[in-house]
Structure formats: structure tokens, C-alpha cells
Amino acid sequence: MTTHVVQDTAALLGRSLRHIARSPDTIITTVVMPIAFMLLFVYVLGGAIETGTDSYVTYLLPGILLITVASGISYTAYRLFLDTTSGIFERFHAMPIARSSVLWAHVLTSLVANLISLVVVVGVALLMGFRSGAGVSGWLAVTGILALFTVALTWIAVIPGLTATSVDGASVFSYPLILLPFISSAFVPTATMPGPVRWFAEHQPVTAIVDAIRDLLTGQPVGTGIWTALAWCVGILVVAYVLADLAYRRRIA
């Protein structure tokens, strides 16, 4: 049974990746906004922002990476919505394939596409002066956190992809996720924020994840912060998966 699921998922994943290969504008569109934010904050606003670090792009990059993921996962909802409205979704379920493979193929496609987008954004950051003190293990840890964060957010994207009644409805959900890093430690230290905003910023998941990635990239001790970040990612993943599975069962019922 497990082999059957893996083979079916791999086949559907190949289909989705071929679509992306024929339409690279998906990657381009995903990275344009994060790169624009990075250019704006570093070269226009960065001089007026005090973070206590010598390189603002180094401070900024972790938050930009999360915005890149939040921007990219909207395409998962879009592609899944198209499948559910074009009839291909029903055709898949009429075939002798594992039902879970249909969703997992979309999730893994999102993971691959977002990792490519993240590499592009890091490349631009290097051109802008980003430098990392992380070793191989640090970079592997950063990659693991970003991959887990991507999978968690992608399962959130699956829900509107299955339940939306329009293309706009399928993708608009990502806007709050893109804006969430702005109320966190991604762009400025939370200590500079007024009371209620500071409390929210310090207790929302983006701050924990950004701080863990920043410490890893700069080669600083992460302490228990990395476990907090991982707990947030796993918690979001579990809740999103359960809700997505319920929406999926209602869709195919």
C-alpha cells in the first residue's frame, strides 16, 4: 500500500513539475515581490532603521524568505482550484490511484518550487551584501526549517484550493500570511514597537521562526529558540493537515 501511494504521488508530482517547467513565470512572479521588498527596505528605508547589526540585509533576509514562501504557496491553491473545476480532479479519482497522492503531489510541487524561489532570493541577497557565518550544519538547519514551514503553509493553501468558488478566492488567503512578517521581528526589533503590537509580535509564530533562522545564518547560539520555531511549524502543519483532510473528504464525498 505504501509503495502504491509513493508511486502514484511521484507520477502526479512529475505532472505538476512539468507544468512549472513549461511556465517558469510562476517562479519569477513568486520572487519579484520579496526581492522588491528587500531592495526597498535595504536601499530606501534601511538607513533609518536601527537593528544593532552592521548589515541590514543580513538582519532582513530571514523575514524575506518567509514572505517568499507565503507568496509562493498561493499558486498551490490556484493550481488545485483549477484541477477541481476542470474535471481532472474527478478523473483522477475515477482511476485506480491512492486518493491521498492527489494532494501530496500538489504539496511536494509547492515545496520544490518554493525551494527554487528561496535559492533565487538568497542569491540576490548575496549580491546586496548578505554574508553568513553559518557552517554546513547551520545551513542544513535553515533549509529544514524553511522546508517544514513551506509544507505547513502549503497545507493551509490546500483548504481554499478545495473550497473556494473563484480563482480570486483561492489565492486571496495568502495576503494575511504575506503581511504577518511585518508585525514581527523580521524588519525591526520588537522592542521598538508599542505595547500591544509588541506583545502580538513577540507571541506570533513568524517572530520565533525568523529569530531562529537569523541566529543560524549569523552563527549565533540558538538555544531553545529553534525548538519554539519547530513547534510552531509542526503545530501549524498538524492543524492545517487535519482541516485540509476534512475539506478533501467533503469534496470527494
UniProtKB/TrEMBL annotation:
Its main location: membrane. Belongs to the ABC-2 integral membrane protein family. One of its GO terms (cellular component) is ATP-binding cassette (ABC) transporter complex. It is a multi-pass membrane protein. GO terms for molecular function: ABC-type transporter activity. The keyword Glycoprotein does not apply. This is Transport permease protein. The chain crosses the membrane at residues 26-45, 57-81, 102-130, 136-158, 170-188, 226-248. GO terms for biological process: response to antibiotic.
